[in-house]
Amino acid sequence: PLIRNKKVRVLAVLNFFLTLIVMLLFLTIILLFGIVVYVKRQAALAVPKHMPCLFEWGEWSECSSTCRRSTKNDPPMMRRHITRIFNATGGIYAPCPVGLKVGYIQHAPCNVQICPKKLSRFNWTECFYRIPHIGKRSGCYKVRRLEPIDQLITIDSTSLYKECKKKDCPEFMP
């Protein structure tokens, strides 16, 4: 043996193993540091430096009505709200608008067609001569006054015209 003293030999062996452990710890720390740097670099590459303001909408709600009551009324509406916002990054794109926040509600018209109307709900016109050049003697009739709007008419009655009583016939047609 090179080292004759038993205590020195034990200390030399212990020193050797401790040096190996320290070197392994040092290499492990360097390896972990390299992994952290690599992951951060990959994350930086995954997120673009310049990104516009983006937001995600939720699903549209049910329409508030199946049809529109009249052309004078506002149409039924459906709505949705913003569920997530991704603010603009970098200096190329404008920032998100002021007031834009999660929960912001957007409204849109739906079922804009006018509700169907039953034929029996339409009023009658004034009386007309059946044969105009004969006049009141030919008899009179009236017809349903259909409005010139884009509306579905449900046929619940077969009476599109009806006879007028003689007393309701005008003396002359204007």
Automatic annotation (TrEMBL):
Q: Which domain of life is it from?
A: Eukaryota
> Which keywords has UniProt assigned to this entry?
Membrane, Transmembrane, Transmembrane helix
Q: Which InterPro entries does the entry link to?
A: TSP1_rpt (IPR000884), TSP1_rpt_sf (IPR036383)
Q: What is the lineage of its organism?
A: Eukaryota, Metazoa, Ecdysozoa, Nematoda, Chromadorea
According to the UniProt entry, the coiled-coil residues are none
Q: Known Gene3D superfamilies for this protein?
A: Thrombospondin type-1 (TSP1) repeat (2.20.100.10)
From the Swiss-Prot or TrEMBL record, give the protein name: Secreted protein
Membrane-crossing residue ranges in chain numbering: 12-39
User: By its UniProt entry, which SMART domains does this protein fall under?
Assistant: TSP1
